[in-house]
C-alpha cells in the first residue's frame, strides 16, 4: 500500500476505513445539536488540521485531502474501526436515517468516491446516443458497481462495465450494465 511505502503510515495501526457506529459519548467540543448519545453515524475518512484554526491548504476546496497534517481513518494518523470504540471529531460525523442499515451505511464513503468520479468525468459532455451517454467503467469491485448505479441514476447512461469476476459481472447486469 502506497501509504506505507511512502512513510505516511506505519505499524501498528488498527485498520477499518469505512464504518458506521453509535455515539457512546460526546466530548466537550461536540457542539453540533444534531448529534446525541445513542445516535447512529458515519464519519468522513479524512480529517485535516485538528483542532481549528485550519491551515491555508485545508481552507481550500478539497484541501483536507492535501493537508500536510491530515489523518485518514484506518490508514494513517488515526486507528480505524476494527476496534471496540473509536474517538472521532464531531464535526466530521453524519447522522444516519433510521431506515439505513449499518451494511448500507458503510458504503457512504465508497459512494462519495463514485459520485465524485462521475462529477469529475463530466459525463454530460460525453458522446450521446438517443438512449443517453455511453460510459465505460473499469473494475467490478464495490466502487465500480456504485459508479454503474450513479451513472444510471444521474445520467441515464448506457454503461459497459469491465471486470473479471463472474458473480460481480452478473450483479452489474442486474444493476443495468449493458455489457
UniProtKB/TrEMBL annotation:
- Which keywords has UniProt assigned to this entry? Metal-binding, Oxidoreductase, Zinc
Q: Could you give a GO molecular-function term held by this entry?
A: oxidoreductase activity
Domain Alcohol dehydrogenase-like N-terminal: residue ranges: 8-98
- Answer yes or no on keyword Methyltransferase: no
Q: Does the keyword Zinc apply?
A: yes
Q: What is this protein called?
A: Alcohol dehydrogenase-like N-terminal domain-containing protein
- Organism listed in the record: Effrenium voratum
